[in-house]
Design brief:
Elements: H1 9-25, E1 31-41, E2 44-53, H2 56-66, E3 68-79, E4 87-101, E5 106-111, E6 117-121, H3 124-132, E7 135-141, E8 150-161, H4 166-171, E9 178-190
Antiparallel strand pairs: 1-2, 2-7, 3-4, 3-8, 4-5, 5-6, 8-9
Length: about 190
């Protein structure tokens, strides 16, 4: 009987990496975006959207293992170009932590901004809807957008585990520590 790995050490490495990465590849989309809008509110460029988590049980499990998750939303607004990279006009980032508080099983989400708000409760689904069901990002002054242009808004959303030691992240750099599959959205519009 011959060993299938003899003379092919790369095959064993490939199979090992596939086994390690398989849970991350099998995520499925558990996060959906609702009502993505870019508009002018009091002379400011505002991006409004809501997040809907399809599998709250998976988030509850990630919180039980880790205790803390971080929502990271990055919005980039640019002038659309056909034969070159888009010209960046504005960029903003929102970081909002989700924590499981102690043994009693309540959850807390802190949403930063001009008027920071804390959402707390024992029902994770309700806390998620109250905190992240409607989010607004401020991209700056509307007057910096020249008329007669095509624009593109890129929105990147990550929900990552926070209490992962840095040595683990460094040693296992090829693994993702996202609790939910990252989501990317693009909105094209003219002004």
């Amino acid at each position: 009987m011959t060993n299938i790995f003899s003379g092919r050490p790369w095959l064993a490495t490939y199979i090992l990496l596939l086994m390690l990465l398989a849970p991350n590849m099998a995520w499925g989309q558990r996060l959906s975006l609702s009502n993505l809008v870019v508009d002018n509110q009091e002379g400011r460029i505002k991006v409004r959207f809501g997040l809907d988590f399809k599998e709250v049980a998976a988030l509850r499990e990630a919180l039980a293992e880790n205790g803390s998750l971080m929502l990271d939303c990055r919005a980039t607004l640019g002038i659309s170009r056909e034969y070159s990279w888009n010209k960046e006009v504005a960029k903003v980032q929102l970081k909002s932590p989700l924590d499981q508080l102690g043994e009693n099983g309540s959850f807390e989400i802190k949403v930063p901004g001009a008027n920071p708000v804390n959402y707390r409760g024992k029902n994770l689904d309700r806390v998620l809807k109250e905190a992240w069901g409607e989010l607004t990002l401020d991209l700056g002054d509307w007057s910096m957008l020249p008329r007669g242009q095509d624009y593109v808004l890129d929105l990147d959303i990550h929900l990552t585990r926070q209490n992962v030691p840095s040595w683990v992240k460094g040693a296992l750099f090829f693994l993702s520590f996202d609790a939910v599959a990252p989501a990317k959205y693009r909105l094209d519009f003219s002004y």
